[in-house]
Amino acid sequence: MNRLTVRAAIHVAAIFAIYLSVAMLIPAAVDLFYDNDDWQAFAFSAVLMGGLALAVALATQGRPPPVSTRFGFLLVNMLWMTLAVAGAVPFMISSLDLSLTDAVFESVSGITTTGSTVISGLDQAPPGILMWRSLLSFMGGLGVIALGLFLLPFLNIGGVSYFKIESSDIEDRPFERFQIFTLSLIGIYSTLVFTCALCYAMAGMNGFDAVNHAMSTVATGGFSTHDSSFGYYADNMAILWTGIVFMLIGGLPFSIMILFVLRGHVDALRDPQIRVYGGYCLVFSLVIAIYLTVANGTPFLQAVTHSAFNLISIITTSGFASDDYSLWGPFAVVCFFVATFLGGCSGSTTGGIKAYRFLILFELLANGLRRLIYPNTVTPVRYGDRTIGDDMQRAVILFIAAFLVLWAITAMLLGATGLDFITALSGALTSLTNVGPGLGPIIGPAGNFSSLPNAAKWICTAAMLLGRLEILAVLVIFTPAFWVR
Predict the structure, then answer these.
(1) Which of 25, 77, 246, 399 is most buried, with most CB under 10 Å away?
(2) Total domain count for the chain?
(3) What integer pLDDT is reported at residue 472 of this predicted model?
(4) What pTM was estimated for this model as a whole?
């Protein structure tokens, strides 16, 4: 590995840490407004992290290295690690006085838009802390989109390389300048958050809750200002349906949204992955709603509202909960477990395996079965009207294989810390898919991760980062070949 490459990656990470330290002034202002002494913790964190980041940025500035896949992989990992560590500082020195383990866990959960939490008593927590958690989700969601659209597509790993074929925005260059594309993305993302907050407020949320939940909803981050999450608003159907709509939007590919909003490309909405994503959201929601109505006697409108909210929350890896769905019955619990794998679309804020990977996987399966009958036939693997290349096919298989292996390893490691089977299995899965809540009484929708052993929290923290960076982007830097010149 060229020293210039490492130096440049550190420099870029330090620049982003400066931006993060400036963002710490927002919760400081919120605490000042509410007359909470925690504003000093955020102000000190901003000065401390900003000063350190500025010093590192000045010490590492210089001529940037040529763009390469190695630089891209190193930069992706360094960015997320730096932001996660910097984001943990306010948690440690605030009135919550979180330990290093808990602070890093909460920060990583926010920046990866996972939504798992170790904080109890959110209803009485300082407003600045609540705002900081939401801001981490907001920035993490924007970073996830940028990761999927700009950085990882050119590293040919996982679903991110799919962006090259999902629309004409790469091939035909409808945006002549990268800056226009970036500003368009930020504009649409921010507009969605503002609109979501406005809808929440109109539906009955107070202004503070509306802003916090909007940032977390569009980012599919799952952080709430209440211990009971959206169970606090369980009787307000308008709030729950607002959440459903904006979680669904957060799971859509932002590249296609940009093409549709700014270029009027209606045909972009015909993307096959959108149909698959919408299809399994609809089917799962209706099936569980019918089950609740028939098995539990729940009124259908109430059943479909809570079923859609909770299932779409899991599918989009948002992690909100309007009810303890682990009490809905075995069939419902199994459905929620399966939904944890799914995820939204490529280029969205969601985690999970994602819809397009399932499309390609089933196309590969269908082709394989056809070749068993007609061994000499040559049938290309297609995505809609496009042919999927060998690199993309290999990336999908590699991701799914790595995902399953890491899930098994993570679950065994969690079991070694003393966790029961359900907690270990679902904790490993929810961390890798960035969903948030797991299953069982400990980390289920009615619990949190605070009672887990420190070792288990570090394991989940590592899994959240692995899942957020599409697994392969992290694993590659641990190969000896990556560091050999």
Answers:
(1) 246
(2) 1
(3) 84
(4) 0.91
